[in-house]
Amino acid sequence: MHVIVIYVLAVSGLLALVSLLPPLAARLRVPYTVLLAAVGVALGLAIQTFAGQGGTGPFHDFLNSLAEMDISSEVLIYIFLPVLLFETALAVDVRRLFDDVWPILLMAVVAVFVCTFAVGYALNLFTSMGLVACLLLGAIVATTDPAAVVSIFRDLGAPRRLTMLVEGESLLNDAAAIALFTLLLGMLTRNAHGGATEAAMEFLRDFAGGVATGYVCGRVVCMVVEPVRDQPMAEITLTVALAYLSYVLAEHYVGASGVVAVVTAALVVGSVGRTRISPATWGALEHVWKQLGFWANSLIFLMTALLVPRLLGGIGWSDVGLVLVVVGAATVSRALVLFGLLPLLSGAGLAQRVSHPYKTVMLWGGLRGAVSLTLALAVTENGRVPDRVQGFVAVLVTGFVFYTLFINGTTLRAVINLLGLNKLSPVEHAMRNRALALSLAGVRERVEGLAHRYEVDEQAVASTVSQYSDRLDAILREQSTEAPLNNEDRVTIGLVILVNREEELYYEHFREGILSRGVAELLNRRTGRLLDAVKAQGRAGYRAFEEPFISFTPWMRVASLLHRRLGIHAPLARRLAFRFEILLGVRTVQRELLEFINDKVGQVLGTDVACELEGILTVRLAMVEQALAALKLQYPDYALILQSRYVSRAALRLEEADYRALFAESIISQEILSDLQRDLDDRRRALDALPKLDLRLDLMDLVGRVPLFKGLEGDRLRGIATLLKPRLVLPGETIVRRGERGDAMFFIASGAVEVLVPGLDEPVQLGTGEVFGEMALLTRQRRNADVRAMGYCQLLVLDVRDFHRLVKKDASLRAHLQSVAEARRNPPPKPPEAVQEVATPLADPPAVVEAPAAESAQARG
C-alpha cells in the first residue's frame, strides 16, 4: 500500500472513531480522555494480534495502516502540540487568569520543579539509574492535562475559580515542564553535569525568550490582521499560521522554548485579538479552534496510546513498584505545594485564599496525559539516550499516566460530589431561586399567551401551566424558609452583574461599529479593573473607581503640551477624538445599564437594591456628563466636528445593515451589495481621517471680548495683551478660592472651568475664550466663589500690579475703566425671562462679584 494511502486511511479511520467516543463517554459517565486511552490501548493490542496476518477488508487494512504508520515524537510535537497548546490558551480568559496569577504561577512553575526533584530523588533511592535520568522522568510527569478534569468540572457545575486554577496551571506548567525536560535531556545526552546555577540560567533564558518571541509574534499578527479585516478565511488562517510560526521561530531561530512562545502568542490573541479581528469572524474563529483542538487532543492521545502495549511489553513487578514510587512522590510533592506553599501566598497578601476542598480537588485532579506520553516517546526515539534509560522512562511514564487516568480520573467526580463543590453557596442558591422564580412566572405567562394566540383548547394548556405554577409555588416556599441576603451582599452582587453587563455592552457597541477598536480595548481594560475592585471592596471599590474611569491619561497631557508649546496638533486631535468617543461610549452604556436595572436586576435583587444601584450609577453618569460638558466648553468647534463624525459612523452602520437585509431578502444581488459595500468603505475611511485642530487665539481679540475692556482702542488693548502671563492648570485644580483677596484676572485660552457660587445648585461653567476675576482688578474685594478647572486648562493671567501700573500711565484708560465699574455697580434691572439666559463672556455682570458668569448667575438666582 502506498505510503500516502496508509496515512489517509489511518488518520481518517481514527477521526471516524473519535467522533463516536464523546457521546459514549457521556453515556458511560467517564472522562473523554480516559475512554480515549482505553480505546487506544485496545487498538494497540488489536494491532499486535491481527496486523500482518492474511486477510482483506477495510477493517484489516485499517489495522495494517496503523501498524505501518510511523508515529514519531516529532510528528506529534510539531503537528499536534502547537495546535493543542494554542487552543487551550486561546480559550483562557486572560483577565480572570491574572486574578489568580500568583497561585497559578506557583502551581505551574514551582510545583513543576518540586515534582521533578521529588520524583527524581525518590527514584534515585530505589534504583541504580543516574540522577539526571531520574530527574528527566520527573520533569516528564510534572506536566498536567486539564482536558479530563475541566470536562468533569463543567458537567458538575464546579466553581469557576477552581476551573480557572486548573486550566491556568496546566497551560503554563506544560511550558515549564517541557523547558525543563529539554534542559535535562541535553545534560543527559551530552554527558555534561553543569551546575545548578548554569541550569537555572538556561531555563530562564529559554522561558524568557519564549515569552518575548510569542509576544512579538502575537502582536505582529494582531497588526497584520487589520488589512484583512472582514475576511474570515484569511483572519482565521493567520491564527493557525501563528501557532506554528511562533513555535518554529522560538525553537530553531531564537533558541528559546517553542511551547512558551505558542502559549504567549495565544494569550496575546485571546486578549487583544477580540477587538482586532472582525466581530463576525471572532465567533467562527473560536469554533474552528475548538474543532482543531479536539482533533489534536484526540489524535495525539490515540496515537500515543497505540504504542502502550509495545512500551509495556517487558514490564515486571519491580517496575510496578517503581510506578508506585513515582505516584507517591508526585502526590506528596503536589500536596506540599498546595497545602504548604500556597497558604504562604495568601498570608503575604499576594493571592486570595484557596479553600481546602479546592486544594483537595486540585491534588486529586492532577491527571497526566498526551504531553507526558509524547515526551516519553521522544526519549525512546533519541539514539543518544542509553537503551536502559529509554525503557526506564517509557515504562514508568506510561504506567504513571495510566494510573492517574484510570484511578484519579474515574474517581474525581465522586471526590467533587463528596466535597460538595458541585453545590451552590447560600448566596448563589438564593440568587438561583430568585432568577428561577422570575423565569417561571414569565414562561407561564408566555405559554398562556401562545395558547390564546393559536387558539389551543384550555384543557390542553392547563397541564403545562399547572406544572409551571407548581414549580413556582415550590420555589416561593423555599424562598420563605431560606436566610435572607443582607443588603450589602445584594448590592455587591448587583454591582458585579452591572460591571459584567457593562463589559458585554462595550463589545456589542464595538461589533456594531459604534465604538472603535482602541476605545473598546481601553474601556474593557478599565472594566476589568473595576470588576476586581468590586469583588475586593464591594460598593466602596466601585465608588473609588468612578473618577479614574474617565480620568485624563498622561498621553493627553503630553499631547496638550505639544500643541501649546510647539503647535503640533495631530496628537492632541487624536487624543481628543479618543476621549470624546470614550465619554460618549461610557454615557451610552451607563444609560443602558439604568434601563437594565429597572428591567432585570430589580426583579431579581429587589426594588430597594435597584434604587441603590440606580443612585450609584447616576453619580457616575453625572461625572461623565460633566466631563463631556468640559470637553465641549474647552474645544467647542472641534467637539461639534467629533459629534458629527460619531453620528456619521452610526449612520454608516445602519446603512450597511439595511443593505445586508435587502440582500438577505433577495431584493439586491451580490454584485450590487459588493458595490454598495465599496462605497461604504470609502466613506468610512474618509471618516477615519481626523480633522485639523486649530486653537490659535488672537490675544487682541481675546482681550477685546472682555466686557471690562470693551470700547478701548487697539494700542491700549495691545498694552494689556503684553502683560498676560501663561499658566497651565490640571484637572480638578482650584484656581481661586472663596475668601481670598483678588489679585488677578484670568483669560481661558483653552479649557473649561466651573464656578462654584454659594446658593446655586449647579456650578457655572466657562469655556475657551471666557474670562473670570476681572472685578478684583478694580475692587480688590475678597473672592465670593471657588473656581476649579474641569480639564487641562491654559490660562492667561493679568496680575493686579501690572494692571494698575498700566492704568496709572494712561489717564484715558483709567477714566474708561471707572465709568465701566460705575455702570456695573448700578446695573439696570433684569427682565424675568433673563433667568433662562446662558452666561456668555459678553454679558455685563454686577459690580460686586469676581467672575462675570458667576455674578450673572447669582443675580438671576
TrEMBL record:
CDD domains: CAP_ED. Residues 820-861 are annotated as: Disordered. Pfam families: cNMP_binding, Na_H_Exchanger. GO terms for molecular function: potassium:proton antiporter activity; sodium:proton antiporter activity. Keywords: Cell membrane, Ion transport, Membrane, Plasmid, Sodium, Sodium transport, Transmembrane, Transmembrane helix, Transport. The chain crosses the membrane at residues 6-25, 32-51, 71-92, 104-123, 129-150, 253-273, 294-317, 323-349, 361-380, 392-416. Signal peptide: none annotated. Its main location: membrane. GO terms for cellular component: plasma membrane. Residues 841-861 have a biased composition (Low complexity). InterPro entries: Cation/H_exchanger_CPA1, Cation/H_exchanger_TM, cNMP-bd_CS, cNMP-bd_dom, cNMP-bd_dom_sf, RmlC-like_jellyroll. GO terms for biological process: regulation of intracellular pH; sodium ion import across plasma membrane. Residues 708-814 form the Cyclic nucleotide-binding domain. It is found in: Cell membrane. It is a multi-pass membrane protein. This is Cation:proton antiporter. It comes from Azospirillum brasilense. The lineage of its organism: Bacteria, Pseudomonadati, Pseudomonadota, Alphaproteobacteria, Rhodospirillales.
